[in-house]
Amino acid sequence: MFRKRSYSVIVVGIFLAMTLALLFFGSRLFTDIGEEAHITQENRIVVGVSQLGSESGWRTANTESVQNAFTQQHGYFLIFNNARQKQENQLKAIRSFISQRVDYIIFSPVVETGWETVLQEAKQAGIPVILMDRNVDVEDQSLYVTCVGSNFVEEGEKAGHWLEGELVRQRKSAQPVNIVILTGTEGSSSQIGRSAGFATVAARHANWNILEEKCAEFTSTKGKEVMKGFLRRYPNIDVVVSQNDDMTFGAIEAVRESGRTVGVDGDIMILSFDAVRGALNMVADGTINVDIECNPNQGEYLLKVIDMLEAGETVEKKYYVEEDVFTIENVTQELLQERTY
Ligand code: AHR
């Protein structure tokens, strides 16, 4: 009887001990996992990115570069918004990032003006703003921390310098040269910079006649439409300066449909910007004479800048990405194979 009772006491004791152990360690285990998940979430840097649109192959590559940079593995939580070419959509996106209290706001401004108020709001909320690709025209430079992008004026100058050299090479530097220019989104940094850079070089040559400059919004469809108009108005175009590859693709179609030829052995020289793979193929086969590179791989630069800011280091106001100039001489098969965009 005694034995039986003590036996059941032992069983009950063991059961109680196991239950308590389970409760104690079980809850510890649960809390630890919970805390870890919470800490991981908390430790991630939240970045709100407002991309201006998806108008070009370059833009798609730029978006991919950003999305590949701000990943969970790199310690980020990315909130991405595509503004579909509208400044009002970018303003909305930035305001939503502010109300979500993100750690950083990154945006590629569709045009340079009209940002003061929203940037002031971000500043008041204590959220650092980083500009990507393009710049803003604001008096108070403290409204953004830094800008990672291209030197658009230099890109325009590179196009001008290439044309100078080519005309010398062809022994045509004293002859009249008729030029038309397809420009990108009016008021964007890439349009303003490339136009200004090319104009500086053109101003040194009295024989360079700029017949017309017209906006084709960085798209292929518009490029073709605007080029058709140029061809109708000017029968003697020698040079097309097209401020991005997408417009160039459209312009080349228009020239060919008009019965004229383009490129190294053609009637009309083609100067383009961006150097996406499709255009580099055309440089390699002589369709495009020169392509001034605009580097869309800006994600890694942005990561470095945020690392520096997180470490409390001072950052420069502007970081230029590395860029090249491509002609038939330096577009190799290796380069084409390696090109990711
Ligand atoms: O601001 C960079 C420009 O924007 C690229 O040249 C163009 O393709 C893009 O849409």
Helix content: 40-55%
Query: What is the CA-atom radius of gyration, in angstroms?
Result: 29 Å
CATH class of the largest domain: Alpha Beta
Q: What's the CATH topology name of the largest domain?
A: Rossmann fold
- Range of strand content: 15-25%
Task: Describe the main β-sheet briefly.
Answer: 6 strands, parallel
Structural class: alpha/beta
Order of SSEs: HEHEHEHEEHEHEHEHEHEHEEH
Mean pLDDT: 91
How does the overall form come out from the CA principal axes?
elongated
CATH superfamily of the largest domain: Response regulator
CATH architecture of the largest domain: 3-Layer(aba) Sandwich
The main sheet orders its strands as: 2-1-3-4-5-11
- The number of domains is 3
Strand tally: 12
Number of helices: 11
The kinds of small molecule bound in this structure are: alpha-L-arabinofuranose
In whole angstroms, how far apart are the ends?
Answer: 85 Å
Low-confidence stretches: 1-5, 19-40
Topology:
Layout: H1 2-43, E1 45-51, H2 57-69, E2 76-82, H3 87-99, E3 104-107, H4 116-124, E4 129-133, E5 146-149, H5 152-169, E6 177-183, H6 189-202, E7 208-215, H7 220-233, E8 239-242, H8 245-257, E9 269-274, H9 277-284, E10 290-293, H10 299-310, E11 318-320, E12 325-326, H11 333-338
Parallel strand pairs: 1-2, 1-3, 3-4, 4-5, 5-11, 6-7, 6-8, 8-9, 9-10
Antiparallel strand pairs: 10-12
Helix pairs in contact: 2-10, 5-6, 7-8
Bound molecules: alpha-L-arabinofuranose (AHR).
Alpha-L-arabinofuranose binds at residues 55-56, 58-59, 133-134, 190, 218, 244, 273-274, 294.
